[in-house]
Write a structure and sequence with these properties.
This is Transposase Helix-turn-helix domain-containing protein. Pfam families: HTH_Tnp_4 (PF13613). With 137 residues, this protein is mainly α. 66% of the residues lie in helices and 0% in strands. The relative contact order is 0.11.
Length: 137
């Protein structure tokens, strides 16, 4: 004996089936995004001014300036923005403070561009672009 479902019931079940498929896709997207978020949380963040601004000894070590003098210098540099970056492309992944920190660290510590790139979690080209631009400013 063959069981058949009346076509009216099939028509009524279609939205439910589509909803379940949509729900499955959404759940899959959520799992993928959770995995991506876990991976991003595990990544080491780059060095930035927030890491040292409240420690005068570290500010003196990396920049030769105490925090208040650093802020005065940043405010002076901010008055000159927007910058025409040396390589022709704008650096948008770093604040002006972090770019200024990078430049002062280069001058104070004479770090190689690769070292700076590793510290700030960026490319060597970005480091070079920032430092060349700020040296000319």
């Amino acid at each position: 004996m063959k069981l058949t479902v009346p076509w009216e019931e099939l028509v009524l079940m279609m939205p439910l089936v589509r909803g379940q498929q949509t729900l499955s896709r959404i759940e899959k997207n959520i799992r993928e995004l959770e995995n991506e978020l876990r991976a991003l949380k595990m990544q080491k963040s780059g060095f930035c001014i927030k890491d040292i601004i409240n420690d005068t000894d570290k500010m003196l070590l990396y920049t030769s300036f105490p925090p208040d003098v650093f802020q005065v210098l940043v405010n002076m540099v901010n008055r000159m923005s927007p910058f025409n970056y040396y390589s022709g492309w704008t650096v948008s992944c770093f604040t002006i403070e972090d770019q200024h920190l990078m430049t002062l660290m280069k001058l104070r510590l004479n770090c190689k561009d690769l070292d700076m790139a590793v510290r700030f979690n960026t490319s060597r080209g970005t480091v070079s672009n920032i430092i060349n631009t700020f040296i000319c400013v």
